[in-house]
Amino acid sequence: MAVHTKHPVAAPPTAPIRATSGHLLLRGWCIFVLAAALAGSAWPLALGIPATAVAVVAAGVVSASVWALSRPPVQWRRLPWFALAYALWAVCSLLWTTHLAATAATLVLLLVTTMQALFVGAVLTWRELVRAMASALKWVLGLSLLFELWVSLVWHGVLLPGFARLDGVVADGAVVWSHDQLMSGGRIQGIVGDATALAFLALLGMVVFAVRFASRAPRRTLLVGWFALSAFLFFRAGSALGWLGAAAVVLVLATVLVMRTTKRAGERTRYYVVYAVIAAAGILAVWLGRGQIFSFLGRSTDLDGREGTWALIAAKALERPLQGWGFATPWPPLDAASAPWGPGIDSALTQAHSVWLDVLLQLGIVGMALLALTFFAYVWRSWFFAVDRPRWDLVADRPYSPVTLVPTLTGAILLVQGVADSGPIVAGGWLLIVMLAFKIKQAPLLGRGASEERLVGEQGETERVPR
Q1: How many CB atoms are closer than 10 A to CB 216?
Q2: For residue 280, what pLDDT is reported?
Q3: pLDDT-based confidence at 459, cuts 50/70/90?
Q4: In this structure, are residues 250 and 210 in contact, taking their beta carbons and an 8 Å threshold?
Q5: Which DSSP symbol is given to 16?
Q6: Distance CA 449, CA 430 (A)
Q7: Residue 110 domain flag
Q8: If you average pLDDT over every residue of the chain, what do you get?
Q9: Which of 36, 181, 333, 404 sits at a 20 to 30 Å CA gap from 380?
Q10: Largest CA distance in the chain
């Protein structure tokens, strides 16, 4: 006789697998590292250079300790070798630099930033990495808006570094943290103290938040709000270079989406030729019509005096064309007599406002060649990471992931920024290049490989078999 029971035959319900507290702390620390690097100049503006240097070294020690304790699997043969060669050449410049103390101090920043980039790329998976970038950008952009509101509503006036108040008028060459123009409709600078840097951070934020939205991340309504905030800050920063960066992002995104539709061998070649012609024509049109374009954007044809600065720096760089005058990125405050960039340059400048001129001045033709190879390798790998369909077996119709768009669109942003700004080789810009280049080489397929499958945040915690 059958026994009737109401006891279910299925397994009892269990709680979903969640990340351990340690892994949550690790992700939180990575978010702090990314936010601190992206904030960049906000630290010396608020705390001063000595305190910032101590914070940089302390953060590097913490990350190195966590990396040594967690021991994530790393394929040491697959490192961003060109970026590391550039850093090594910068270290070698200690042998011929004309400003030893400045070179040594800025080398610490370069090496710590490089190590932090490798650390974040090693301990996070692709989805966690994009999520951490989104969280870091939320902090930087949100604090930028709150900072400008505080300056306008509480401080009421121009804010100088160290929270100092301006007496009188702003002198030529003075470093100003905020011009208090949020309510007046002028250009805002955010916590980074630079309108161009804020514009590119906001542009990167729009890219990352859109990718997170397309990936069906939780709380998508909030992502729409963060995208709107990024667009507002981008518009209020009023950077002509930022608008060119936005145009480049749209062009690259459209090209990637078109390339993803190809089905036959050789079909991409025709698109490459067409887009190469369009890109060349666009660059020529921008150059020939730069006067009208910059006038429309409210800028002078000489990029607000940068062409004169470039001419002086280029002349100084040609005095030592091969090895340069010694690494110093960003430019430290030096006397005019000891500064390698020589007299006639604004003493308040911390960069050459061009990646390539900055590197040519400091590390010569060799350094510029190594940096060019770094960017070329990054763009090459990130491009095919975005356009190639994920495949590791006979299945050839797996869907594309929006996450794969982040590296190539970030590369487009940094390349355009580097034309008239040195941000891509300082702090957050350099961290993004090294981190994403390293991650692409370690995990060229999303969700595949030891570095992608081992972590709790992606596929849950592995079961422990009782002994």
Answers
A1: 8
A2: 81
A3: very low
A4: no
A5: P
A6: 26
A7: yes
A8: 85
A9: 36
A10: 103
Q: Which of 47, 30, 272, 313 is nearest to 162 (CA)?
A: 47
With contact defined as beta carbons under 8 Å apart, do 120 and 60 qualify? no
359 vs 327: CA distance, rounded Å = 8
The tokens for 321 are 């064309």
DSSP symbol at 387: H
The DSSP line for 57-74 is HHHHHHHHHHHHHH----
How many domains does the structure of the chain reveal? 1
- The predicted pLDDT at position 395 comes to 67
Phi, psi of 380 (to 5 degrees): -60, -50
Q: What is the dihedral of CA 41, 43, 47, 53, to 10 degrees?
A: -100
> Residue 343 carries which DSSP code?
T
Query: How large is the average pLDDT for residues 389-412?
Result: 85
CA distance 272 to 256: 11
DSSP state of 155: I
> DSSP letters of 27-54?
HHHHHHHHHHHHHTTHHHHHH-HHHHHH
Pair 233, 188: CB distance under 8 Å:
yes
Range of the domain at 377: 43-263+310-457
The single-letter DSSP state of residue 320 is: S
Q: Note whether residue 282 is domain-resident.
A: no
pLDDT for the residue 390: 81
Is 152 within a domain? yes
Q: Is residue 8 part of a domain?
A: no
Determine contact, residues 383/290, Cβ cutoff 8 Å: no
The β-bridge relationship of strands 164-165 and 159-160 is antiparallel
Closest-CA residue to 388 (of 289, 262, 272, 275): 262
**Cis amide bond preceding 330, omega within 30:** yes
163 Cα distance to chain centroid: 27
| Cβ-based neighbours of 376, under 8 Å, separated by 6 or more | none
Q: What is the pTM of this model?
A: 0.89
- Fill in the DSSP letter of residue 424: G
Cβ count near 217 (within 10 Å): 17
Tens of pLDDT, residues 23-48? 889 999 999 999 999 998 899 999 99
Please answer whether residues 329 and 426 qualify as being in contact, where contact means their C-beta atoms are separated by less than 8 angstroms. Answer: yes
Helices (H), 388-444: 405-420, 428-442
State the Cα angle at 328 between 327 and 330, rounded to 5°: 140
Query: How far apart, in whole angstroms, are the C-alpha atoms of residue 78 and residue 118?
Result: 12
Query: Taking CA 350 as the corner, what is the angle to CA 99 and CA 409, rounded to the nearest 5 degrees?
Result: 120
Q: Distance (Å, rounded) from C-alpha 417 to C-alpha 421?
A: 6
Report yes or no: 339 and 362 within 8 Å, Cβ to Cβ: no
- Angstrom distance (rounded) from CA 351 to CA 313: 10
CB 153 within 8 A of CB 55: no
